[in-house]
């Protein structure tokens, strides 16, 4: 084409647009928390609305499910998208709920979210894996507090979480509480491997997690290597490991500047914690 020439685009019948092209237009706008964009696009002309009708029906269902999930966190869809804190406390979340949460987070990152609090939700390994997959997509880049206390998360779920944490997807994380989850030695070993990516972490709770001496020794080795340089509080009470192992890791923490009352081997008092408190 010679310089200065323009292309004359021929009009195209909407009905001739291939489905894959329509999906390339519609799928980025299939946002459960913010359905207005696709609705506005479809309303530009009657022909376009007819073509996008299947996606509009899909979006309506997603938005309704998202609204129900947000309501259980005492929030609307609009509030959820801008939230700094999201709390599900003593509220069972099914596998379907967790899939919905994953869809929300992967389609619409929450850049303002600082605190994600799920306690007594019974999400288990499957729910934790779904949540971890969303975190790995950098859905919550400014998250500072992650509380997954008493959720029935085992080794498999913890391994998925460790993979997300180890990817560097939550670089600003300060506080993490995984207490009262049966993650065991395997879960603790996986988590220890991710600590090198948690440069800002100051508080870690893995109390009453069924962790034996192998897991605790691995955790101690990670701390000895200098992981989590800002860590100041480590909670390990209630784990079935040898007292000698506990004394060893306590000594490691003291050498790194922990005071004994901070390590304390005492349990968090999270069962009665206020939702407005971090810990």
Structure report:
The structure is a single chain. The chain has 279 residues and is of the alpha/beta class. Helix content is 45%, strand content 8%. The chain has 11 helices and 6 strands. A 6-stranded parallel sheet has the order 1-2-3-4-5-6, with no helix packed on it. The radius of gyration is 23 Å and the shape is elongated. Mean pLDDT is 83; it is low at 260-279.
Query: Structural class of the secondary structure composition?
Result: alpha/beta
The side-by-side strand order for the widest beta sheet comes to 1-2-3-4-5-6
How far apart are the termini?
66 Å
Low-confidence stretches: 260-279
DSSP helix fraction? 40-55%
The whole-number mean of residue pLDDT values reads 83
Question: Major beta sheet, specifics?
Answer: 6 strands, parallel
Annotation, overall tally of beta strands: 6
Our Rg estimate from Cα atoms comes to: 23 Å
Instruction: Give the helix tally.
Output: 11
Order of helices and strands: HHHHEHEHEHEHEHEHH
Choose one word for the global shape: elongated
The proportion of residues in beta strands is: 5-15%
């Amino acid at each position: 084409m010679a310089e200065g020439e323009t292309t004359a685009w021929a009009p195209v019948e909407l009905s001739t647009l291939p489905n894959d092209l329509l999906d390339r237009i519609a799928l980025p706008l299939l946002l459960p928390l913010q359905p207005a964009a696709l609705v506005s696009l479809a309303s530009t002309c009657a022909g376009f609305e007819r073509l996008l009708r299947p996606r509009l029906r899909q979006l309506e269902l997603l938005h309704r499910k998202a609204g129900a999930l947000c309501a259980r966190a005492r929030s609307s869809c609009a509030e959820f998208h801008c939230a700094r804190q999201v709390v599900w406390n003593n509220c069972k979340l099914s596998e379907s709920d967790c899939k919905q949460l994953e869809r929300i987070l992967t389609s619409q990152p929450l850049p303002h979210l600082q605190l994600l609090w799920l306690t007594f939700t019974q999400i288990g390994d499957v729910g934790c894996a779904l949540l971890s997959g969303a975190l790995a997509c950098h859905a919550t880049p400014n998250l500072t507090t992650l509380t997954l206390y008493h959720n029935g998360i085992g080794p498999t779920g913890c391994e998925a979480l460790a993979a997300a944490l180890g990817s560097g997807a939550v670089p600003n994380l300060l506080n993490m509480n995984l207490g009262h989850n049966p993650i065991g030695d395997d879960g603790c070993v996986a988590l220890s491997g991710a600590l090198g990516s948690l440069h800002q972490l100051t508080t870690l709770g893995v109390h009453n997690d069924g962790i034996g001496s192998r897991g605790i020794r691995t955790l101690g080795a990670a701390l000895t290597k200098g992981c989590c340089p800002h860590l100041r509080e480590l909670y390990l009470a209630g784990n079935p490991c040898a007292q000698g192992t506990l004394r060893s890791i306590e000594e490691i923490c003291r050498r790194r500047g922990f005071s004994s009352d901070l390590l304390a081997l005492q349990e968090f008092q999270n069962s009665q914690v206020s939702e407005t408190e971090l810990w």
